[in-house]
């Protein structure tokens, strides 16, 4: 189900050894979706410290612990390591559609084409996390995280656009931890 | 559904609470800000970019907007937009405070003159230019005295001086603040002058009120239990209900009502700061807006209405006379800034939130950013909120929670 190229394996083992963690495993999770691609979390985890419901893939030289909620969308993934003129790093090819559900895909399309290109002008972005019943769950980042005007962006921008195209949606729920924002676009101040 | 234009500067602390209130009430709110919102082009009619520095241009833009999207009210939430709120309302023939009255609240010298002429208790005061030689004018002011900018809010630039030497230092410090790029960028002539007034000893309180047809309803009276004797006036604790004797509270309310009449304010929220001593209640400041920062979160009315809901209801013509503040005591601590530098860590937040009576903690300066104490500082470090049966319990909760917090600030 998961393919790790030899180049990637060698790089992973090399990093593990350089960090003095040769017996660790690799943990892989999908943490978001943005601009028509999945966002991943890739890191080392000591065996026994993985999440209880992680799905284990034996890559031979090490184990890969896959987040249970991400497994469905990790089917067929190839992890490679590239080092060329454009830079170096792990490259993850994922053949799965960003969303299999048509409504999720349509909202994602709205985010990618009308919302995020404009939020980018303020260094911000919004991620679609899920749609359950008539509620859309989102997370804001970059300049939007902790921004003093984020409520205006959310209610008079994101929510208004979603409800314009999807009238059945009743609510957009912001799950962002705004207190952790480090570079909000607008910061409040005394007059 | 009524449509209301909310004048929200992009640097306001009040956006969240007003937007939440509008959502709960089902009021159709248009947001007017001095900068274009990121999604403005995608959602026409919901936000409006306005040049707050040029009243006529901004008013013209609002009038044009209202031709397409008719407005039922214009509400300014901060000092910076108070005058525009009145001017735009007049242009649209909507209920509003007289423009001259709102303008007076934005000019501490004019406010002082009005209050003195109306016979309210007033300290001696004089107006100087930021270009004046502080040493040369030091013998023209009473001691102790307080130097104040005419146009800044929340104790920014306010410094007490007990002697001519202290006065010269304070005056020059305030002059430098008023010449900083941030203040100069406001393009405000008031920033070229400094008010010096006699220091008023006594206990300080804050009154939150609502004017309806010129009649003041006191929504809350906050005690400020930490001494505010200077040299700087960093506000920390606000606790309501007041523990002052009933007769003193009545004096405070009467003084505020008299001041509002003298200024000519008629409608909407007012926030007043007063001092009380043996001579009576002295009005320090009055603003044609509600309480600043996040402090309004201490207040609940009727069955749980927020202050912002009450203000929006009033702005849309509803009768809000029946709403009174809840029975519980409540309070907020504006977290003091111990010294300037880069905020690199905060410990003890969970412990602070676990203190009985504490409702919330909000840190409002991101890690990695500069914190600047008064008199220059323009940002609150954060807010602690508490609610309990009595004001004493609220004060204990806030002080205990504050002791849990450890701020790491790199002075470099």
Question: Can you walk through the features of this model?
Answer:
The complex is a heterodimer of chains A (about 190) and B (about 400). Chain A is α/β, with parallel strands linked by helices and about 190 residues long. Chain A folds into 2 domains: about 1-95, Hypothetical Protein Aq_1857, Chain: A (Sandwich), CATH 2.60.300.12; about 100-180, GMP Synthetase, Chain A, domain 3 (2-Layer Sandwich). Chain A is built from 3 helices and 10 strands, in the order E-H-E-E-E-E-E-E-H-E-E-H-E. The longest helix of chain A is centred in the middle third of the chain and has 18 residues, at about 100-120. The mean pLDDT of chain A is about 90. By secondary structure, chain B is an alpha+beta fold. Among the domains of chain B are: about 5-95, Rossmann fold, CATH 3.40.50.20; about 125-200, ATP-grasp fold, A domain (Dna Ligase, domain 1), CATH 3.30.1490; about 330-410, Aldehyde Oxidoreductase, domain 3 (Alpha-Beta Complex), CATH 3.90.1170. In chain B, about 30% of the residues lie in helices and about 30% in strands. The N and C termini of chain B lie far apart (about 55 Å). The interface between A and B is large, with 33 and 42 residues.
**CATH superfamily (homologous) name of the largest domain in chain A:** HesB-like domain
Q: Structural class of the helices, strands and pairings of chain A?
A: alpha/beta
User: So, CATH architecture of the domain at 3-97 in chain B?
Assistant: 3-Layer(aba) Sandwich
Tell me what the CATH architecture of the largest domain in chain A is: Sandwich
- Spatial ordering of strands, largest sheet of chain B: 3-2-1-4
- Strand proportion of chain A: 25-35%
Q: What fold name stands as the CATH topology of the largest domain in chain A?
A: Hypothetical Protein Aq_1857, Chain: A
Bulk shape of chain B: globular
- Rg of chain A to the nearest angstrom? 19 Å
Helical run tally of chain B: 12
Tell me the quaternary state.
heterodimer
**Percentage beta strand of chain B:** 25-35%
Coarse shape of chain A: globular
Note poorly predicted spans of chain A. Answer: none
The strand count of chain B comes to 21
At CATH level 3, the topology of the domain at 3-97 in chain B is: Rossmann fold
Poorly predicted runs of chain B: none
Distance between the termini of chain B: 53 Å
